[in-house]
Write a structure and sequence with these properties.
The protein is mostly beta strands. It has a domain of 99 residues. Helix content is 1%, strand content 46%. The protein has a 5-stranded antiparallel sheet, with no helix packed on it. Strands 1-2-3-4 form a 4-stranded antiparallel sheet, with no helix packed on it. Strands 11-12-13-14 form a 4-stranded antiparallel sheet, with no helix packed on it. It is globular, with a radius of gyration of 27 Å. It starts with a strand and ends in a 5-residue tail after the last strand.
């Protein structure tokens, strides 16, 4: 139940499979509005907007869906403008054509009302319907509209794209008609049209130039994002394959898309195949080689200009982590098949150093190099923290003791002595998906603490002091993701933190303010 801010109306929600929302007049105790919405299992809470024009409702179902009730309602073959006359609520129906039979978004700007359709039509309800035609769009289904101060509109699509739209002035071309004068795409994000499998973003890394970040996901693209402008500077397709050319099996050279072919969809699901879905990323610090680990165990390598160079396939399952050694002599890959793969890199080719390391009992999730690149530590789903000597490929059974004072090049494993305080009470060990340690201490000295960022299944990004040694350590929390957080990475100067959302397919940029 909720009161309007002028205390004249009260909203109540029902409990049931398809609950009603009722709006009552406080003095007469008569309902002025009643409607059944798509919310399931019942309405647990509701609230009026400051101007009393909107009512937000939250559902009791597992997803806790939220619906916003305005006095313009849209839906399937439905457009109604509601008006309060005295103590009654009357409606005026709009004429629905085939171009706007499925309306999914609405915005009111003064006496103008615009709606977006499930296809690509933007309709002003005093003029005509006009399509936004962009051949480069992956999905133009309009999901959100907002009005800028200068009268232009921002239109968001299901394909994670944002357009700036300018409407004709009335009478410019045809008296009494309005329409789309111009539009331009100002940003685009990840979007995967998969029907059966999840559409997630997992890969995230900061480029060594400090000006870009790279991301990849289930949409089979590698994206280069400019930090300052927050726009995509390049989108590289991963949905291609090549044939082996005079090299050892499963190490494919000359992986140029112009000499390759587009991968066919999965015959069973019609979705993108696993060898095109990126799950992790790395960039070498010196030569800026880019490595992408894929869902089916494929590794794709690009040069500094993002031209494909190699495709490697040894792992049998998803690649969960991939990193170059600090000296770039090795490329190490962790896989869900419980193996760690080590490749030598001589500046021209990649070759397996020795047989895969098979010491973990479950899917290997994260690993880090020591400062000099001689050792790694790795974690898996069985909560094991193991240590290995890279040159020999052997496990160090006493590594926790002998390497206790080792300086690690990065720290991205969620287990270990310096990160024991990040786990909340009653955690099952899988709640934290990613961690990342800052590059420097908070004041640049050698004696102060660093920062440690975490991303978890509850959509939260947290920052702890590093090392974090005590149970229930104090942290700073950031919320913004609508899905689980799959990855976090500090910028090179530690002034920015970047996080990737799973099914929300968003890359968020956070400003880090250090308080000594």
């Amino acid at each position: 139940m909720a009161f309007s801010h002028d205390r004249k109306l009260v909203a109540t929600g029902e409990v049931g499979p398809k609950p009603f929302l009722h709006i009552w007049d406080v003095e007469s105790l008569e309902p002025v509005f009643s409607s059944k919405f798509v919310l399931e299992k019942g309405i647990c809470c509701c609230a009026f907007s400051p101007d009393n024009e909107l009512v937000a409702c939250a559902a009791i179902n597992d997803d806790h869906n939220v619906a916003v009730v305005s006095f313009v309602t849209v839906g399937i073959k439905h457009y109604c403008h509601w008006k309060i006359e005295g103590k009654k609520l009357t409606k005026t129906k709009g004429k629905v054509s085939r171009n706007n039979c499925l309306l999914v978004s609405v915005i009111a700007d003064g006496d103008r009302v615009l709606t977006g359709s499930g296809e690509n039509y933007l309709t002003e309800w005093r003029g005509t319907s006009n399509p936004i035609l962009d051949e480069d769009s992956v999905c133009l289904s309009i999901r959100s509209i907002d009005c800028l101060v200068d009268g232009t509109f921002l239109v968001g699509t299901l394909g994670s794209e944002i357009y700036e739209v300018t409407l004709w002035k009335e009478g410019k071309f045809s008296p009494g008609k309005t329409g789309v004068d111009s539009f331009k795409k100002i940003n685009c994000g990840h979007y995967a049209p998969n029907q059966k499998w999840l559409n997630e973003v997992w890969g995230l890394v900061v480029h060594p130039d400090g000006e870009h970040i790279l991301s990849c996901g289930d949409d089979a693209t590698l994206r280069v994002l400019h930090i300052a402008s927050r726009t995509a500077k390049a989108i590289i397709s991963l949905n291609f394959g090549v044939k082996a050319i005079n090299v050892r099996p499963r190490v494919y050279m000359n992986a140029d898309r112009r000499e390759g072919y587009m991968l066919a969809p999965d015959p069973a699901t019609k979705d993108l195949v696993g060898s095109a879905k990126g799950r992790c990323l790395c960039v070498s610090e010196k030569s800026h080689l880019v490595g992408v680990g894929c869902l089916d165990g494929t590794i794709r390598l690009f040069n500094q200009d993002y031209v494909p160079q190699f495709i490697i396939k040894h792992a049998k399952k998803e690649i969960s982590d991939i990193k170059f050694s600090p000296d770039e002599d090795h490329l190490i890959v962790a896989s869900h098949d419980s193996h760690i793969y080590v490749y030598n890199y001589n500046g021209e080719t990649f070759a397996p150093t020795y047989r895969p390391i098979k010491k973990h009992t479950s899917a290997v999730l994260h690993f880090d190099f020591s400062k000099d690149g001689s050792f790694i530590h790795s974690t898996c789903r069985s909560y094991e923290l193991l240590f290995f000597e890279i040159n020999l490929g052997k496990q160090m059974t006493s590594g926790a003791t002998s390497l206790r004072n080792e300086l690690w090049h990065t720290w991205t494993v969620p287990l270990g002595w310096p990160v024991q305080g990040i786990w909340p009470d009653f955690s099952d060990g899988t709640d934290i998906n990613a961690v990342d340690r800052s590059h420097e201490t908070v004041d640049g000295s050698e004696v102060n603490y660093r920062l440690l960022a975490t991303g978890d299944d509850f959509g939260m990004v947290k920052i702890f002091k590093y090392p974090s040694l005590h149970k229930n350590s104090v942290y700073v929390k950031g919320t913004g993701h609508s899905s689980h957080v799959t990855n976090v990475r500090f910028g090179l100067a530690d002034e920015r933190l970047f996080s990737a959302g799973g099914e929300d397919q968003c890359i968020l940029q956070w400003r880090v303010i250090k308080h000594l």
